[in-house]
C-alpha cells in the first residue's frame, strides 16, 4: 500500500512540476470542471433517460471526455511560448474570415440562424464565431503591441485595428447578434486599455448605437402597433424571406419581450425566462441540493444556455454567488498577469482573452436572471461540452502560456 501511495505521490509531483503558469487559474479550471460534471449530469438526466432508454449516464461520460480533451488542450497550449501565437495570429484571422462568410450563406441552420459548419468525415459541427473570436483577439493584441507609437493616429493607428473588428462583427451579427455585440464590447475594452484615442472609441460607440437604437425603436413601435401586447418570436421557417430578415424579426421580438414582458406564456422566450425564474425561486438561499432540480424537466437547454438557473436551483443564491466570484477571481488573476508581463503582446493577449470569457459568463448569468434579453451564449467551462467548450480551453491555455513565461522571467530575475 505504501508503494502505491508513493507512486501516486510521485506522479502528482511530476505532473505539478510540468504544469506551469498561474496556480489559481489552474485551480479555477479544475473547480469549474467539477461543477460542470455535477450540473450537466443533473440537468441531462431526464433527457438521457428518454433518448437512450434509461441510460442516464450518457451525457456524463460525454462531458468527462470533453473535459479530458479540454484539459489536454490547456496543457499543450500553455507549454507553447506565447510569441508563437503572435506569428499565427494573422494566418488564423485570415482563415476565420472566409469561414464566417461560408457559415453565413451555407452554414448549418439551427433556430433560424446559421452559426455552424459541418466538418466532413467526422460529421461534427462547430461554431465559426468561436474561432473568429479567438483569432480576432490574438490579431488585435498583435496590432496593439506593434502600433503603440502611432496608436493615437486615426489612419495608421486606429483604422488597422478597428476594421478587423468591424468585419468580424458584421459577419457574425446576422446569425448571432449577441455574440457580435459581446465581441464588439470586448474589443472596445481592449482598445481602451491599448491607449486608443477616446474620440475614436466614441466614434465607434456612436456608429454602433445607430442599429441598436433602431432595434429598440422597432420594438417600441411593434408593441404599440399591437395594442400593447407583445408578439411571439418567429420560429417557423418563413418562405421567400432571407435568413437575415427572419433574424431581425427575432431580435425585435426579444427586445420587446425584455422591455415589456410577453403576454403569450407559450412563446419560446417567455417560456424560457419564466421557467428560469421558477428555478431560481425554488432554489432560494441554499438550494434544493445536488441532483434535486425540478425545472430541468421543463426548462429548454438546462445544460447549456440556462445552466446557471439550474445551479441556483440546486445550490441556491450561495452557489450562484460563488460561481460569479470564481469568474471575477479569474479576471483578477488575468489582470495580474497583464501587469507583470514585460511585453505588450502577451499582456494584451492574456487580458483580451480573459475579457471574452468573463464577459460571456456575465452575459449568460444576466440572461438567466432576466437582466438581459435572451441570447444563445453558454457559461464558459460549465455548460455541456461542444466546440465552444474546446475553444474556451484553448483560450485559457494561451493565458496560462503568458503566465508561464511571466513566471519564468520572474524566476530569472530572482536568480540574477
Automatic annotation (TrEMBL):
UniProt subcellular location: Membrane
Main subcellular location of this protein, as a coarse class: membrane
Repeat in keyword set: no
Catalysis: reaction(s): [GlcNAc-(1->4)-Mur2Ac(oyl-L-Ala-gamma-D-Glu-L-Lys-D-Ala-D-Ala)](n)-di-trans,octa-cis-undecaprenyl diphosphate + beta-D-GlcNAc-(1->4)-Mur2Ac(oyl-L-Ala-gamma-D-Glu-L-Lys-D-Ala-D-Ala)-di-trans,octa-cis-undecaprenyl diphosphate = [GlcNAc-(1->4)-Mur2Ac(oyl-L-Ala-gamma-D-Glu-L-Lys-D-Ala-D-Ala)](n+1)-di-trans,octa-cis-undecaprenyl diphosphate + di-trans,octa-cis-undecaprenyl diphosphate + H(+)
Gene Ontology terms: cellular component: cell division site; plasma membrane
Membrane topology value: Multi-pass membrane protein
Membrane-spanning segments: 24-47, 59-77, 89-108, 120-141, 161-194, 201-221, 306-331, 343-363, 383-403
Keyword flag Transferase: yes
GO biological process: cell division; peptidoglycan biosynthetic process; regulation of cell shape
Gene Ontology molecular function terms on file: lipid-linked peptidoglycan transporter activity; peptidoglycan glycosyltransferase activity
InterPro entries: FtsW/RodA (IPR001182)
EC number: 2.4.99.28
Annotated keywords: Cell shape, Glycosyltransferase, Membrane, Peptidoglycan synthesis, Transferase, Transmembrane, Transmembrane helix
Protein name: Probable peptidoglycan glycosyltransferase FtsW
Protein source organism: Pinibacter aurantiacus
Amino acid at each position: 500500500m505504501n508503494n502505491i501511495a508513493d507512486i501516486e505521490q510521485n506522479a502528482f509531483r511530476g505532473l505539478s512540476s510540468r504544469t506551469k503558469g498561474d496556480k489559481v487559474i489552474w485551480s479555477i479550471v479544475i473547480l469549474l470542471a467539477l461543477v460542470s460534471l455535477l450540473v450537466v449530469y443533473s440537468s441531462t438526466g431526464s433527457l438521457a433517460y428518454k433518448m437512450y432508454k434509461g441510460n442516464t449516464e450518457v451525457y456524463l461520460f460525454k462531458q468527462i471526455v470533453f473535459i479530458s480533451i479540454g484539459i489536454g488542450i490547456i496543457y499543450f497550449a500553455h507549454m507553447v511560448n506565447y510569441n508563437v501565437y503572435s506569428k499565427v495570429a494573422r494566418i488564423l484571422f485570415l482563415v476565420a474570415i472566409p469561414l464566417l462568410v461560408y457559415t453565413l450563406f451555407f452554414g448549418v441552420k439551427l433556430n433560424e440562424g446559421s452559426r455552424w459548419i459541418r466538418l466532413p468525415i467526422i460529421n461534427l459541427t462547430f461554431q465559426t464565431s468561436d474561432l473568429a473570436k479567438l483569432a480576432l483577439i490574438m490579431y488585435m493584441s498583435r496590432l496593439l503591441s506593434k502600433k503603440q507609437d502611432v496608436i493615437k493616429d486615426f489612419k495608421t493607428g486606429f483604422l488597422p485595428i478597428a476594421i478587423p473588428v468591424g468585419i468580424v462583427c458584421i459577419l457574425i451579427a446576422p446569425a448571432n447578434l449577441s455574440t457580435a455585440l459581446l465581441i464588439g464590447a470586448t474589443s472596445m475594452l481592449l482598445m481602451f486599455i491599448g491607449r486608443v484615442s477616446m474620440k475614436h472609441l466614441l466614434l465607434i460607440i456612436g456608429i454602433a448605437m445607430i442599429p441598436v437604437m433602431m432595434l429598440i425603436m422597432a420594438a417600441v413601435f411593434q408593441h404599440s402597433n399591437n395594442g400593447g401586447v407583445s408578439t411571439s418570436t418567429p420560429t417557423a421557417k418563413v418562405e421567400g424571406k432571407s435568413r437575415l430578415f427572419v433574424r431581425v424579426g427575432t431580435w425585435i421580438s426579444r427586445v420587446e419581450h425584455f422591455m415589456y414582458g410577453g403576454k403569450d406564456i407559450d412563446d419560446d422566450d417567455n417560456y424560457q425566462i419564466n421557467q428560469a425564474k421558477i428555478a431560481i425561486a425554488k432554489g432560494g438561499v441554499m438550494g434544493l441540493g445536488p441532483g434535486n432540480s425540478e425545472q430541468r424537466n421543463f426548462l429548454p437547454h438546462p445544460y447549456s444556455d440556462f445552466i446557471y438557473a439550474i445551479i441556483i436551483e440546486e445550490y441556491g443564491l450561495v452557489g450562484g454567488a460563488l460561481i460569479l466570484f470564481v469568474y471575477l477571481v479569474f479576471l483578477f488573476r488575468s489582470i495580474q498577469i497583464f501587469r507583470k508581463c514585460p511585453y505588450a503582446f502577451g499582456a494584451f493577449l492574456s487580458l483580451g482573452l480573459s475579457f471574452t470569457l468573463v464577459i460571456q459568463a456575465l452575459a449568460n448569468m444576466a440572461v438567466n436572471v432576466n437582466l438581459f434579453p435572451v441570447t444563445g451564449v453558454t457559461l464558459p467551462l460549465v455548460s455541456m461540452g461542444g466546440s465552444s467548450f474546446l475553444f474556451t480551453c484553448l483560450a485559457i491555455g494561451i493565458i496560462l502560456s503568458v503566465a508561464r513565461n511571466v513566471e519564468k522571467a520572474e524566476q530569472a530575475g530572482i536568480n540574477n
